Every structure is written in C-alpha cells, then in structure tokens.
UniProtKB/TrEMBL annotation:
Pfam families linked: PqiA (PF04403)
Designated name of the protein: Paraquat-inducible protein A
Transmembrane stretches, start-end: 50-69, 97-121, 141-160, 172-191
UniProt keywords, alphabetically: Membrane, Transmembrane, Transmembrane helix
Length: 210
C-alpha cells in the first residue's frame, strides 16, 4: 500500500497539511486557510532561471573587472574597481565594512550563480549533478546574503556626495551592477525548487535508478 503521507505538504505560512495535487501549466495552488501560494506549475522555470543565471554570470564578471567609477581632479583621472574599493576600505581600518562588502557584493553573488549553474545546466542536458542536495541547501542559505542592490544604493549615495568636490564618471561596472541586480531578481523570481526536484526525479529515472 503506498505511503499517502508522502503526498502531503505543509503551508510555509500557517503549517496546514494538505494534499499535493497536479496542476495545469501556468496554474498555482494556494492554502485554503491563509491564502499563501504553495507552489506553481511553471514548466519552463528551469530554462528561464538558467538563462537569467548565465546572463547574470557574464554581467557579474564585467562588474568585477571594469572600474565602478572614476574621479577626475584637475585633468587627472583615477579609476577604481570594486575589489580595489574593498582593499581601500581595509587599508583605512574599516575592516568590518570591507568584509561586508566583499561577502555580500562579491562572494555571495558568485556562490549563488555558481550553485544555480551547477544545478540547472546538467538538468538542461538531462543529467543529475553530483551532490545536488548540498547545493540546494547552499542556495537556501546564501540567498539572504546576496545584497547587490544595497551596494548599488550605497554607491549612488557616495557618488552624489562626491560630485560636490570632484567630477565623478560612472564606470562600466556600475551599469553592470545595475543590470546584475535585475537579472538576479529575475532568476530568484523564476527559480522554482519544486520544478527542480521534479526534473531531478525525471533525470534519475532516465539514468535507470533502481
């Protein structure tokens, strides 16, 4: 006799247990008690998330290679990248801020993009990535620490203050971070863990799992 408890899911808002039902493409299931969205049937979520992730990865590389802005004083121009800004904060004894910027604007987005690519690219090819439960947990842990939009806000505030004394020229990295913010938001919105698990099950069956 099949284990019917495996077909139960709990609402993430009110913890109400309810049956997991099949949905038509594009539809979603909501909790009858609190109305929270339980899951969606977005059949192309893996493809869309992978597309956003690969685009974000290319933009992220550009954002870390090119200068974030330049300062021109009496004809002399000095450019700085994000990593150089982190080192400058460290040298100025603002080490807590330096570490926060490094972790939330560089390490966390890189880990998120690498984890998404590691999970979704093999799935697109019909394969099961090794150690995929670990990377699913990494994604769940790292998402709150990815704060590129906070970096953008801080940079914009700094630019406004600097323009009173210097000529500030936005660099390619600044525009790249703006695009990266949109792409990461789009990837997070389209990512559906339920669809990923479903494709993982299908990939396991396709590889002849006993």
């Amino acid at each position: 006799m099949p284990d019917r408890t495996a077909q139960l899911i709990a609402c993430h808002d009110c913890d109400l247990l309810q049956r997991d039902i099949q949905l038509n493409p594009g539809c979603y299931a909501s909790c009858p008690r609190c109305g929270a969205v339980l899951y969606r049937n977005a059949t192309d979520s893996v493809d869309r998330t992978l597309a956003y992730t690969l685009a974000a990865a290319m933009v992220f590389l550009g954002a870390n290679v090119f200068p974030i802005f330049s300062i021109e004083v009496q004809g002399d121009r000095s450019a700085i990248t994000l990593f150089e800004a982190v080192l400058s904060l460290w040298d100025q004894e603002m080490r807590t801020i330096s570490l926060l910027v490094f972790l939330t604007a560089m390490v966390a987005p890189a880990v998120e993009l690498l984890s998404l690519t590691y999970l979704l690219l093999p799935l697109k090819l019909g394969k099961v990535p090794p150690s995929y439960p670990l990377f699913m947990r990494v994604l769940q842990f790292i998402e709150p620490w990815c704060m590129v939009e906070v970096l953008m806000l801080g940079v914009l505030v700094s630019l406004v203050k600097l323009t009173n004394n210097f000529r500030v020229i936005p660099g390619m990295a600044l525009w790249s971070f703006a695009v990266l913010t949109l792409l990461l938001a789009a990837a997070a919105a389209s990512f559906n863990a339920r669809d990923v698990w479903a494709q993982l099950d299908a990939a396991w069956q396709g590889q002849g799992e006993p």
